[in-house]
Fold this sequence. Notes:
By secondary structure, the protein is mainly beta. It has helices spanning 13-22, 122-125, 168-176, 263-270; strands spanning 3-6, 9-12, 29-34, 41-46, 51-56, 64-70, 73-78, 86-90, 95-98, 110-115, 127-132, 135-137, 143-145, 149-153, 158-162, 182-185, 188-192, 199-204, 209-214, 221-229, 232-239, 244-249, 255-260, 280-284, 287-291, 298-303, 310-315, 320-321, 324-325, 331-336. It is built from 4 helices and 30 strands. The chain has a 4-stranded antiparallel beta sheet with strand order 5-4-3-30, with no helix packed on it. It has a 4-stranded antiparallel beta sheet with strand order 6-7-8-9, with no helix packed on it. The protein has a 4-stranded antiparallel beta sheet with strand order 10-11-14-15. Strand 26 and strand 27 (310-315) form a beta hairpin. It is globular, with a radius of gyration of 20 Å. InterPro entries: Kelch-typ_b-propeller (IPR015915), SCF_F-box_component (IPR050796).
Amino acid sequence: MAAIMWGQVRLPELARRRLLGRAHHHPPWFLALPTRGWGPSCYAHNPVGENWHVLPLDHSVSALRPIASICGLVLLRVTSKTWLELAISNPFTRQFRSLPKLNVARTNPAVGLIQHCPTQSCRDLGFKIYVAGGMSEAAGGGAVYQPTIEMYDSLRDTWHVIDGPMPVEFAVRLTVWTPNESVYSKGILYWMTSARAYSLMGFEIMTNKWRELSVPMADRLEFAALVSRNGNLTIVGGTCGGDACVWELGEDDDWRVVGKVPFELGMKFLGGKVNWGGVKCVGSNGAVWLYREIGSGMIVWREVIGGEKWEWSWIEGCCSIRGKEIKNFPIKGLLLHPNLAHVAF
């Protein structure tokens, strides 16, 4: 029977087809990528077998930094360029492609993603990338904040500038204080500022209008992350000497607590010190992960299959695979369902 190499995992063709057909029934995989560059390999945690795998990466490219996952692929920023340039890669098939250049050259803009189905191929359903703010060259020299948005459509493989006013204040905040994490929920693409006190900025796709939202306990959170939980806008954050909680946005823009990290798990994760600084978080439909480094233990909050209940659990970090020691390093965590199709993206 024909088989394919999947990192260090060998899957027969029948198993590959079954996996692709059932991906939406299982939680997403956790992909651990180096934060400081495109290393020779990355590591993936299989939620079904609860084990780690090593995935060799494309050695022909190195000046890359991961941004987010989309349709089973990884969106990357080219770090060797002054102006923003993006690329996509499939770490399971080692495919790589650069995206077209933006219409307006800009540095350090916020990047947001919209995908219709996270378990299907991007070739079938497509995805869109939004780039907002950033700095561009001024006509008379120097630099100026860019109060515009560009959108990339994967089905057309082109960028276009979106019409509509963008408050200059938002352009500044998106450029200076906003990381690349974004969440699309109920027609609005959200970003959260990366400096206290935290706040949210939202772009309504149909009307091209902007809105701002407050963040619960905004001035007390040591870390805060914006995630999606079953399509709902969700914030995960922890306070100094306190708990880490999960808030979900409800009707009338009210936040309500929907989860809290169990005390014992939190103390184990933090090494006995109640200090949430430096904690990272990634979430998507079906799972929310708290993590720091590849070798450190992680906390995951998963939806129980067949019900509305979510459960907290502990995941051991990746310290060795097949007897080979893995050196500890800081990671960027992404959640995705493996896409094993060799598509010409």
